Amino acid sequence: GFNASYIQAGCGQALTATNLPQYFTSTNYPQNYPNNENCSWTIGAGVGQQVELTIITLTTESCCDYVQVFDGNNSLARLKGSASNQIYSSTSGQLRVVFFSDRSVTRAGFRASYKIESCGFNRTATVSPQYITSPDFPSNYPNNVDCEWNLLGVGGKQVELSFNGGVTETCCDYVDIFDGSNKLARLKGTFSAVSYISTTGGLRVVFHTDSSVTRSGFNASFVEAGCSQSLTATNLPQIFNSTNYPQNYPNNEN
Fold first, then answer.
1. Does pTM top 0.85 for this prediction?
2. Residue pair 27/110 in contact by the 8 Å Cβ criterion
3. How many domains does the chain have?
4. Which of 73, 72, 64, 16 is nearest to 37 (CA)?
5. What is the separation, in whole angstroms, between the first and last Cα of the chain?
6. Best-predicted range by mean pLDDT among 1-15, 87-101, 231-245?
7. In what order do the strands lie in the sheet with 14-16?
8. Quick check: is 239 in a domain?
9. Is the bond into 250 cis (omega within 30 degrees of 0)?
10. What number is the average pLDDT over the span 205-234?
11. pLDDT bracket for residue 9 (50, 70, 90)
């Protein structure tokens, strides 16, 4: 069986994420929303937990009506026109969703779900940063954790993963980064900021903890790697390549 809840949350309110998906919609959904809406939903979670938001479907007036998603004060996206299955994660333990409509032309609006972010996911990199953290960051992570994040590139695009540094138990808790079957690094103990770029169209991040001693863990961001960027050399080899390698590069690259 199952247990789930669904509400039309009116024009904005405070919501609390749980392990089960919950839902909210624009006013009157799936009928057209009213003109002159200005709604704000704040979605929180417990201490050390992060929120995962999915905009399941969205249809608004293309020019002027929109949904904007904030992680703290940082705007993650502004969606308008048509969109579906857009996923956003907090780094601050809270997301805010703002819906605005002007004084003319309305559409069906949006339907969204939210829950506490699980330990690991499969997600496609975009030009906007997305985030991963160890469970309960910046508080200490639990014992006996095994998490896996698969960060995917689309159409041969590379993925750039950037750690802001981190701390794990030196002997036994670690973060492994894979580019396909090639292990790029194992991070453990106290490590500083470092970045990795895929050659295979994706990266895999594995986090393991044993049965004793915990630390604060890590946070990191990932984006679709562009054609040209600033790189920082470390003692460990890092790799970059032409767009789409080993497939053919595009025309008109610069």
1. no
2. no
3. 2
4. 64
5. 55
6. 87-101
7. 14-16, 38-44, 94-100, 66-71, 74-79
8. no
9. no
10. 86
11. very low
- Residue 192's domain is classified under what CATH number? 2.60.120.290
Residues 165 and 209 in one domain: yes
Domain boundary among 88, 116, 144: 116
Nearest-CA neighbor of 33 among 110, 112, 144? Answer: 110
Q: Sorting pLDDT into bands at 50, 70 and 90, what band is 11?
A: confident
Q: What is the mean pLDDT of the chain?
A: 88
Q: Dig out the tokens for 144 from the structure.
A: 């006996």
